[in-house]
Task: inverse folding
């Protein structure tokens, strides 16, 4: 995948998610027409993967966005407590 070898990258491969500070998505359109997404955020020099799924409609389901945001907050809390 191009993200691994060419970070940082922008659209159309990666996109910030409006309304969710710091959350981004890797966009992947597979050869069979399937649309896959992986949500992540950047913590220091690390890309933290939060949630991946296959899209079934044009609009990203709110439950997937909320789950990624919840995991981001959990990771941020963990990182704060670790120090």
Result:
């Amino acid at each position: 995948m191009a993200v691994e070898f060419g970070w940082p990258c922008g659209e159309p491969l990666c996109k910030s998610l409006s309304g969710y500070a710091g959350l981004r998505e890797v966009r992947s359109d597979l050869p069979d027409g399937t649309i896959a997404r992986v949500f992540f955020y950047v913590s220091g020099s690390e890309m933290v993967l939060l949630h991946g799924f296959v899209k079934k409609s044009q609009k990203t389901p709110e439950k997937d966005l909320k789950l990624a945001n919840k995991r981001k907050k959990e990771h941020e809390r963990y990182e704060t407590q670790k120090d």
In short: The beta strands are 14-16, 24-29, 35-43, 46-55. The two ends are 32 Å apart (CA to CA).
